[in-house]
Design goal:
Helices cover 74% and strands 0% of the residues. With 198 residues, it is mainly α. It is elongated, with a radius of gyration of 20 Å.
């Protein structure tokens, strides 16, 4: 019985660590949030905190997964995949530290197949492309998107615009990330309407 209680406490502590780490990174930034900051906030030593994760990099991956879970559970009130992506990107402007973390890991460290976050980002992009391409094909089926557009290629371009705008936004926060994502989708949608009416 004691083992079961200890296991439940371990799970609860891990959840607390992830929630605190997510909040600290969102507010303070990725580079200004250390393992010591997180450990202090949850009442552990650094070694005690890392007992719950295989490495510091695994902790960051789990923080990103937690962010994804929260985003996935949110009702974005989006009518199509472009509107959904734009809504998420618009929200990201409210959590600059998480944008910084995502960019730092996805565009640099995690491109190494040996990095703890490599599989996470590889799967995330594959799932995002597949899901968005399916939704874009549905839009083609009901005439809201040009039928000659390669849905998977458009999904890849929209994800690339989203990620690229996040990098630009970190340098210049006056850039409207969501507006650029919407622009790419609007070009395909507008041309669909032109083709139908022409």
């Amino acid at each position: 019985m004691a083992r079961r209680g200890s296991y439940a406490k371990g799970i609860a502590k891990r959840e607390e660590i992830l929630s605190i780490a997510l909040d600290l990174v969102a507010v303070n930034g990725f580079r200004r949030t250390s393992i010591k900051d997180i450990a202090d906030a949850v009442g552990l030593t650094q070694a005690g905190l890392l007992h719950y994760f295989d490495s510091k990099d695994e902790l960051w991956v789990e923080v990103l997964k937690r962010r994804d879970e929260i985003d996935d559970a949110h009702d974005w009130h989006a009518s199509d995949p472009a509107a959904l992506l734009a809504a998420v990107v618009r929200h990201n402007a409210e959590v600059p530290g998480l944008v910084q973390m995502f960019v730092n890991l996805s565009a640099a460290a995690a491109t190494d197949p040996e990095h703890a976050a490599h599989a996470y980002f590889q799967q995330r992009y594959e799932t995002g492309r597949t899901t968005m391409a399916r939704q874009l094909r549905e839009m083609q089926g009901d005439g809201r998107l040009r039928p000659d557009v390669d849905a998977e290629a458009l999904a890849s371009v929209m994800l690339a615009v989203s990620d690229g705008m996040q990098i630009q936004w970190l340098y210049d926060p006056t850039r409207d990330m969501a507006e650029h994502v919407e622009l790419v989708a609007a070009l395909a949608i507008t041309q669909a309407a032109t083709k139908v009416s022409g």
